[in-house]
Amino acid sequence: MLFASKDEIATRLRGIASHTNGHVKLENADRFRDELLDTLVENAVLNPEPEIKGFTRYLIKSAALELGAVSASIQGLYEARGRGECGGFTVPALNIRGLPYELSRAIFRTAIKKNAGAFIFEIAKSEIGYTFQPPHELAPVILAAAVKEGFKGPVFIQGDHFQVSAKDYHADRDKELGALKTLIRQAVSAGFYNIDIDTSTLVDLDQPNIVEEQRLNFEVGAELTLVVRDCEPQGITISVGGEIGEVGKENSTEEELRAYMDNFNTTLEKARPGARGISKISIQTGTSHGGVPLPDGSVAEVALDFDTLEKLSRISREDYGLSGAVQHGASTLPPEMFSRFPELETAEIHLATDFQNMVYESRYFPADFKQEIYAHLQTRFANEKKAGQTDEQFIYKTRKKGFGEFKARFWGLPLEMRTAIGHELEGKMDFLFDKLNAGNTRDLVAKTVTPVPVPPNLQVEIEACS
To answer: What is the pLDDT at residue 248?
Structure first.
C-alpha cells in the first residue's frame, strides 16, 4: 500500500506514534512494528512522491533510534583487534542486493540467535547502480529490519568498493573523483559509517618499482580518506578500508602491502597531521567477484591462497595496527573453506553472490517471473555478452541487474513467498555465522563500540528522494 499524502500517514500513526516539533515519539512500539512498519518500508522504497518517501524514511530512522538500533562505526572493534585484544573470528560483510528487507531480517534473526554483534551490511558502488538502491534508501530498509526483528545495538552499514574507474580517472580526474566524493558524502549522510575506498584500480604494474606501481592507489586513497573524515558526524570515527590488489587480478604480496601502507600513512600525515588512517586492508588471494561461471552456468573451483591471506593479515595487524586483511569474492567458495578464515585471523569477509543465487534458485521463486527477467536481460544487456559466452554464463553474470530492472515487482511478490525465501536465506546466515565464529561477539562489540545516535533530518531525507 502506497500512501497518497502525509495526512494519510498521520491517520495511520494515531495511537502508534506522534510527530511534533520535529520529534517522533513511539506511543506503542508493538503496534508500530506489527501494524505499520512493513507499509512504511514499502513507501520508503517505492512511493513516487519525494515528500512522502522522505517522511517514511525519517519515521523509520527515528523509530530505530528510539528502539535502540543505531547506525554505527565498527572502528572501535577493529582498533582493539589491531592492538591484539581480540581475535578468532571473521566479520561477515553481507551485500544487500535482492529482497533487501527479507535478507536484512534474516541476518538480524541469525544475529539474535547467535548472540552476534560483529556483522556488517553493505552495498558496493556498482550495486547501488544496478539494484537502484541509493544509500538513503537502503539504510532505512536495514534499520526497519532491525526494528522488525527486535534487534538492539550498533548496526554497521558499509559502503563497499567505493571504487575509482581507472579509465574515467585518466580521462577526467576531477570529474571521476568528484562523483565519488559526492557518493561518500551521500552515504555518510544516510548513516553509512563504514566506507571501503577502492583505488586499487589505479595500480599500474608497468611502473619501474612497487612504490610507483602503488602511487596513485595510496595518493588518491589518502585524498578520499580525508573526504570521509571531513563529513564525519560529531563523535563518530568512520571505519575506512583500503585495498592493494584489485579483486580478480594478480595475488597481493608483502612488498605491495608495505609500499601501500608506508606511503599511504606518510601521504595522509603530510596532508593533515594526526588524521586517522584506515582500519583494514583488502587484498587479492585468487578469488573473483561472483566466481567464474563455466559454460553450463556452474562455478569454477578457486585456488585460494590461504598462505598469502594469513601472512598479510598478520603483518597488517602487527606492523600497522590494522584489524587485518579483508577477503572479497568469497560467497561462492566451497563450504569447507569458510572455517579457515577465522583460523587465519582474517578480519572481514565479503559475501554477496550466493544470496542472489539463492533467491533466483529458490523453489519458492516463481518460474514464470524468473524467465521474464532472463528474457529481458538477454535483450536489455545484449551488448554486454562476450564472444564465446554461453547463455548460461551470460545470465549468471547478468541476473544481478534484474533486481533493479524489476525492483517494484520484487517488492510486490506475495508476502508468503518473500517470507519463505527469507527463511532459506536465514539458514545460510546460520551456517556463515557459525563457520566464521561471528556468534557470541555481542559483548565484545558492546565493550569496544559506543554508538553515537545521529537524529535523522527530515529535509535531508526528502531532498535525497528528489
So the answer is: 44
